[in-house]
Amino acid sequence: MEELLTKEPIVKPYFSTQIKIYLGTLLLLFTANTYANDSQKKLTPAPEFTHSKASEWINGKLLKLADLKGKVVLLDIWSYGCWNCYRSFPWANDLEKRLEDEDFVIIGVHASEFDSERDSNNVVAKAKQFKLHQPIMIDNDFSYWNALGNQYWPTFYLIDKQGKLRAKYLGETHKGDKQALKIEGGIQYLLNEETLAKK
């Protein structure tokens, strides 16, 4: 599944976070032609969102993948009973703010870990508590979870501008950590992929 990020960027630990992001992005851009020209790899379309009632979406209208064409999408699969999910929210909120002028969006998918989390009013309250402004699909029946073949909370998926799944990342993520740098490098690559392919 990790189409883009099979090699980790080599980054010295004493570099600042900004330099780490810059170097990681440069490394990914340097290897971009390898990925762009690899005709052996078949990209999988992201599954269509499985919930089509307004009551199953919060922080905005219900969405279809076609609504997101032309945007790089970070899917955040989470549950409000998951501490690792909570600890990843500050990074995701910061990322959303930093990329607000780009063709980028975060879509949350709340898949309840416990029965007590199935009440959408509680999900709304937690979204407010953690300042989550992105659209969130409530996946109480695990239909989207299963369509992705997901297994863990949190899991992050990158979807490219054509709606193809490009990468998958597991676990808690913090600003400036190794996983954040990989995800952010992947996002930057996908934002610039069309330009890179023309070179």
Automatic annotation (TrEMBL):
A Pfam family of this chain: Redoxin
MF-aspect GO terms: oxidoreductase activity
Residue span(s) of domain Thioredoxin: 40-192
The organism's place on the tree of life at top rank: Bacteria
Record's protein name: Thioredoxin
Organism whose genome encodes this protein: Leucothrix arctica
